[in-house]
Specification:
The chain is an alpha/beta fold. The chain contains 19 helices and 16 strands. It has an eight-stranded mixed β-sheet with strand order 1-8-7-3-4-5-6-2. The chain has an eight-stranded parallel beta barrel with strand order 9-10-11-12-13-14-15-16, surrounded by five helices. Helix 8 packs parallel to helix 10, helix 10 packs across helix 11 and helix 13 packs parallel to helix 15. The longest helix is centred in the first third of the chain and has 22 residues. The structure holds phosphoenolpyruvate (PEP) and magnesium ion (MG).
Length: 455
């Protein structure tokens, strides 16, 4: 049995197709004639490659690289594909044509399983199917704990085609519309009208529920070839997110004008990624005021109350959460990046996957501080990183006082079920217990102990 990080899906059984790195650009050639229940094994996959998997009868994939909060893992969760990442040596031990059982929950991979293993996993599959039926009954319910704490549970999307997944799962809004795909899946910049159409389409589908559009977060691992981003030695610390937008106000203004125009047809908010200073926020607000003036002059309708929010995902912004909370209309905590920047541990690097953890005390303290600052100012605060659907962390976020959570559509119902079965009183004392803990291992076992007692 091989092991890695189970990042999504269920338990699937299938036949392997193994693709070397050099074969990936020609993936179509190798996957065109694959049969049902194919499991792809490869050293690494880019998000761009992985998106193509939807066209083939692939039920799961395994890579040597990748971490739990990498964009590849996020995509796998969105597509509801079973995925195990960071399996060392998977390319050495598995051949095309091998039969495998892939467990996307525990992160296990059984190659050419015997009868006992197959029977064991079939039993587990049945149990998961039963659980799923239970979970589906939460589609129409509100999100409230047993002790009456209400919050808004929304969905993260990165393509207009995902909106239906949020609606189907009873999402109470779109808490994070990642817009990089709008740019990355084509060869030139989308026009204002093209973007406007997409946002209006989302508004129609969401029927008045909130849609939070994150402006283009170019850079980092989001390479958009035609933008001619300069090669950087450290792209994650480079011209990313708002830094790029302020350098290319033409691209930024086009996107924001499209959002403002769409706001006449639904409830929109604008969310700004990767801020590290208040000055960036003020500069953006100036650009947005100019857009509003232009729309006013032209008599183009838009929502005059449209809220502008800041994503807190750098330690710099976290430490200034008190000031951001005074100037922003809402705050959304991007725990994926906040974790990588706080610990200085790349979110996609499997070599240091043991260091990258949302349970790091510095990460949890940051989240707590940001939420405290927002509550003090009466500003809505959300968590939109992958941690938002971590069942073990949920009680903590509720005790901190979070207002909104935004999670992958495939996790909405499960998260609602977990919140509905939770009583915050069972976690009295947890915050104090965490106060003196200084490592990932200690915080995790402390949280585990509270969960064990609450059951
Ligand atoms: C985050 O950083 O937590 C986040 C939600 O943004 P992304 O994963 O797109 O970087
Ligand atoms: Mg981010």
């Amino acid at each position: 049995m091989l092991s890695g990080m189970g990042v999504s899906g269920k338990i699937v059984m299938g036949t392997v197709i193994r693709l070397e790195r050099e074969q990936l650009p020609d993936m179509e050639k190798y996957l065109a004639n694959t049969g049902d229940n194919t499991i792809l094994i490869s050293p690494d996959l880019t998000v761009k490659d992985a998106i193509k998997l939807e066209q083939y009868p692939i039920v799961g994939f395994v890579t040597e690289k990748g971490g739990f909060n990498s964009h590849l893992a996020i995509l796998a969760r969105k597509l509801d594909l079973t995925a195990v990442l960071g399996v060392p040596g998977c390319m050495d031990f598995i051949a095309t044509g091998d039969h495998v059982i892939l467990d996307g929950i525990e992160g296990n991979l059984v190659v050419n399983p015997g009868k006992n293993a197959v029977e064991h996993y079939i039993k587990l599959q049945r149990k998961l199917e039963e659980d799923q039926k239970q979970i589906n009954s939460y589609a129409e319910k509100e999100t409230v704990t047993l002790d009456g704490y209400h919050l808004t549970l929304m969905g993260n999307i990165d393509d207009i085609s995902d909106v239906k997944r949020v609606v189907k799962s009873g999402g109470e809004g779109i808490g994070l519309f990642r817009t990089e795909n709008l740019y990355a899946k084509r060869g030139n910049l989308p026009t204002e009208d093209e973007q406007y159409e997409i946002y209006v389409q989302a508004a129609r589908a969401m029927k008045g529920k909130t849609i939070i559009i994150r402006t283009l977060d170019a850079g980092g691992d989001h390479r958009i070839p035609y933008l001619d981003l300069e090669a950087e030695e450290n792209p994650f610390l480079g011209c990313r997110g708002i830094r790029f937008s302020l350098k290319r106000p033409d691209i930024f203004k086009t996107q924001c004008r499209a959002i403002f125009r769409a706001s006449a047809h639904g409830t929109f908010r604008i969310l700004l990624p990767m801020l590290s200073s208040l000055m960036e926020f003020r500069r953006v607000k100036n650009v947005l005021s100019l857009i509003k003036e232009e729309l006013d002059v032209l008599g183009i309708p838009y929502d005059k109350q449209l809220k502008i929010g800041v994503m807190i995902e750098t330690p710099a912004a976290a430490w200034m959460a008190d000031l951001f909370a005074k100037e922003a209309d809402f705050i959304s905590i991007g725990t994926n990046d906040l974790t990588q920047y706080t610990i200085a541990a790349d979110r996609g690097n499997k070599q240091i996957a043991n260091l990258y953890s949302n349970y790091h005390p510095a990460v949890l303290r940051s989240i707590q501080y940001i939420i405290q600052c927002c509550r003090k100012e009466g500003v809505t605060v959300a968590i939109c990183g992958e941690a938002a659907s971590d069942s073990k962390l949920l009680p903590l976020f509720l005790l901190y006082g979070v207002d909104e959570l935004s999670v992958s559509p495939s996790r909405i119902l499960r998260t609602r079920q977990q919140i509905s079965e939770m009583n915050r009183e069972n976690f009295n004392g947890l915050l104090t217990a965490l106060d003196n803990l200084g490592s990932i291992e200690e915080t995790e076992s402390c949280i585990d102990a509270f969960h064990a007692l609450s059951n």
